[in-house]
Amino acid sequence: SNLDKLIPISGDVTAKDLGLLPNDRQLLIERVSIIFHIAAIVRFDESLKNIIFSNLRATRDVCILAQSMKNIVALHHMSSAYTQSDKPVVDEILYPLKVDWRQTIKIAESVDEEILKIFTTKYIGTFVNTYVFTKRLAEQIISDFSESLPCIIFRPSIVLSTIKDPIPGWSDNFNGPIGLNIGGGIGILRVAYADSSLNCDFIPIDLVIRAMLIVSWKRGIQSISEDNTVHIYNSSLCNIKSISLSEMLSTGLRNFSDIPFERIIWKPNVIMTKSRLLYYILMIILHIVPALFIDRILKLFGANPMLIRLQRKVYVANHALSFFLIKFFQFNNINFISVFENLSADNEKEFGYKELINFDVEEYCKNSLIGYKLYLLNEDMNRLEQARRNFKR
């Protein structure tokens, strides 16, 4: 089978030199011709020290490893469209940053973590969080190494569940809107600080993977002597397929009544507001007060109080995402679309995007909800009738 071709190797992107054993490193040098550098910490509230090691130093070390590879034809770096969140319009170009990535790595290696925490806000400047800051700097590393390596910078927008490959609705993490969707479906998220009229610039993961394969092939057929530029792609469907946050919410709520989660604690319904004052008032009324009341009841019955702790996590998640939910970004994607438009007829069958982007939003949201139940919450679809009875109650 194809899986027999895989050779797993132990490594650690938070460790220097990627935590590779000498024999494994040599195996990579001898055998690998294409690198997909995807590993990163994607949490928005991660400490500066840890995220510099995983997102910056690891990128440098991947580039150093790639330089020693005998047959390297493409180094594909996974970035994010939101690394440029200080701009309303983002083109498919490199935006240099005055911060020195070499010095930043040295600081993380030499300065105490508690001291770094104090200086984080000052150091990242206008960037909304440590994730955006380090991913933006990592692009500069790729650019600096591109003189000797065939490099790609790939910037997806909000990556959500699959349309159909390998199966409809597949997803493997709670990050971003997925966590908020699940929170709303369970009933612990009642209010969100967001602009409901804002278009949600999302892209299904299987479409992202198709594009990654194509651009790596395209980069690989041109040697570094023929082309030493960085190929940059904004992986976004903003001008092709868009849906507002309110449409996504209403579609989700319709599906929740038919395919509810098993452990809901309140009927799903989320109020979105872009008024910070109203958000705080509703947060206290709909989140904090009920959580305090239920925790008190749990304590009286000898159970472990947990809702206030849970609501703290909900607040932190909403706060981290709010910057991206109340502000419009335009990601120009000419390079990205041209990758699909210029495919041959044969490749169009396997890697085309037109048959994917014409998906029905209602069906996509329904499949995504089923995917959340199966792959993230480990729920059984055979218990759906029981879940529906609980939802009605």
Describe this structure in words.
The chain has helices at 22-31, 48-68, 101-110, 113-124, 130-145, 177-186, 205-220, 245-258, 276-300, 307-325, 334-341, 345-351, 354-357, 361-376, 384-392, and strands at 34-37, 74-78, 89-90, 151-156, 158-160, 191-193, 199-200, 202-204, 231-235, 243-244, 271-273, 330-331. With 393 residues, the chain is of the alpha/beta class. Strands 1-2-4-9 form a four-stranded parallel sheet, sandwiched between helices. The protein has a two-stranded parallel ribbon with strand order 3-12. The chain has a two-stranded parallel sheet with strand order 5-8. The radius of gyration is 23 Å and the shape is globular. The termini are far apart. 36% of the residues are buried.
Q: How many DSSP-defined strands?
A: 12
Strand order of the largest sheet: 1-2-4-9
Largest sheet, in brief, is: 4 strands, parallel
Low-confidence segments, ≥5 residues, pLDDT <50? Answer: none
Which term fits the overall shape? globular
Query: Strand-residue fraction?
Result: 5-15%
End-to-end separation: 48 Å
What radius of gyration results from the CA coordinates? 23 Å
Number of helices: 15
- As an assembly, this protein is single chain
The string of secondary-structure elements, in order, is HEHEEHHHEEHEEEHEEHEHHEHHHHH
- Given helix and strand content, the structural type is alpha/beta
